[in-house]
Every structure is written in C-alpha cells, then in structure tokens.
Amino acid sequence: MDPDQNKRLAAEAALSYLPEQGVVGLGTGSTVHHFIVGVAALVRQGRQYVGVATSEQSRALATSLGVPMLDDAGPWDVLLCVDGADEVSEELDLIKGGGGAHTREKIVNFAARKNVIVVDERKLSKRLGERWAVPVEVLPFAHRETARLLAAHGTPTLRSRAGAPFRTDSGNYVYDLATGPIEKPRELDIHLKTTPGVVETGLFCGRADVVLVARGSHVETRTARDFGERLS
Ligand code: 5RP
After folding, report:
1. Between the N and C ends of the chain, which has fewer C-beta atoms within 10 Å?
2. 105 is catalytic
3. Could you read off the pLDDT of 3-54 as tens digits, one per residue?
4. What's the distance, CA 178 to chain centroid?
5. Side-chain-side CA neighbours of residue 94 (13 Å)
6. Which atom of ligand 1 is nearest to the CA of 101?
7. How far apart are the C-alpha atoms of 118 and 175, rounded to whole Å?
8. Start-end of CATH 3.30.70.260 domains in the chain
C-alpha cells in the first residue's frame, strides 16, 4: 500500500474516537490532513465540531473545508486532539516537530482530555532518537549561543528552507538535535527546556493516550499503560 493510503487509514480510524460534538484539537502534517478532511465531512453532515488549530497550515485547511475554529488564545475545553508524530517509541513517547509545529502541538496536547496519535509503521522505533533528530524551537536572539549549549546533548543543525532559516508560526528558529537513541527522554526534555533560549522541544513523553499505527491494510491500536489513570 502506498504511504499516503497508509496515512489515510490511520487518520480515518481516529474518527471513531470523536465525541458526539464539541471542541477538537487538529494536529499538523500529512497524516492528520486526512483526519481534518474527515472532520469537515462530518460537520457538513450536521455534527457540531469546533476546531483548535496547532498550526496556521491546519487552521487554513480546516477553515477552507468549513470547520468552525476557535481563536488561538484559549483556554479551550478540547475533548480530543488527533495529531501525527515523526517517531514513536515502545513506551509510546513521541518525537514531533517535523513540520516545526511542535510548540503549538504540545500546548493543544496538554489542553486535550484525550490524545490520539496517528502514524504509519515507518514511524515506530525501540527508542526515540534512533530514526529522528529532536526538533528544538529556539528564539532567534543568540540562537548560536543556544545551539552551543544544545551541543552538550547531541549535534544541533539549524533547520533551513530555501536557503534561509526556517521560521515557525511564532517566528522562531528550529534546531534539529541529532542525539542517537535516547535513554531517558523525560530527563533530556527537562535539560533542553531549561536551556536559555529554548522555547519548546519535540519530545512528547507520556502524552499519547492511544497510538493508531497503519500496518499494511490494517490499523493497530496501542494504548498507554496509564490510560485510565490520566483520564480520570
Ligand atoms: C508537525 C508534526 C507532525 O505531526 C509530524 O511531523 C508528522 O507529520 P506527517 O504526518 O506529515 O508525517 O509534528 O510539527
């Protein structure tokens, strides 16, 4: 099955987690794209969903398809957030930020009562960092100084687009920090977050309630061990 079909399969499976109505967090990326299209189809059928966007890209897509959207200020009562990921470990920890949207994605993830992650099997690894670098959003001010400190944890590369530094929706830069397999992702996240100049990291530890993995023509459901605890 081609990769986009696989992504569609996982994203469409996430539609079954939607509540009857209410506020839904809309992640970012090519997998979640299919979920947003599905939500829009339900809205057209009369279901009363309102979206919270994790990026300007997702806001534009949802709005163009007729999904009513809340503004960015919050607070929002997000019943469900569906998002993609770049890497998923055996513990269901995540690396996100391939699209540079991880700061907003993390804010909406923390606001949501339930987080469903949609991926295809190419995103799975034993330990985070095996396949993907950790995206770190930093302030442009003194970013090379921030990068010097990040280098204590790996090799930072300034993300660029068309020959210029890539800018997030908030106008910041992103360093992709190649770490190799990460033994203690929560600890690394704390170290990175306490580095001056760092806005947010793409490490999402313990933030996935359910991971839907498209494998060939079927979708596998992985559930966090503490699912019940965190929802109660
Ligand atoms: C954007 C993200 C995306 O969710 C992640 O990059 C996965 O994207 P895709 O579904 O296109 O592979 O974190 O910041």
Report:
1. C
2. yes
3. 889 999 999 999 999 999 999 999 999 999 999 999 999 999 999 999 999 9
4. 18
5. 26
6. 14
7. 24
8. 134-197
Distance CA 22, CA 160 (A): 37
Our mutation pick for probing the ligand 1 site, out of 35, 86, 170, counting the most ligand atoms within 8 A of Cβ, is 86
Please determine, looking at this structure, whether the domain spanning 3-123+205-217 carries the CATH number 1.10.10.60: no
The domain 134-197 is classified under which CATH number: 3.40.50.1970, 1.10.357.20, 3.30.930.10, 3.30.70.260? Answer: 3.30.70.260
pLDDT of residue 225: 62
0.90 exceeded by pTM: yes
Residue ranges of the chain that CATH labels 3.40.50.1360: 3-123+205-217
Helix (H), strand (E) at residue 11: helix 3-14
Q: How many angstroms separate the alpha carbon of residue 212 from the centre of ligand 1?
A: 14
Instruction: Write the residue with the smallest CA distance to atom 4 of ligand 1.
Output: 84
Instruction: Give residue-wise pLDDT tens across range 56-73.
Output: 999 999 999 999 999 999
What confidence score (pLDDT) does residue 227 get?
Answer: 41
CA of 21 to the centre of ligand 1 (A): 25
Ligand 1, atom 10: closest residue by C-alpha: 31
Q: Give distance in angstroms: CA of 152 to centre of ligand 1.
A: 26
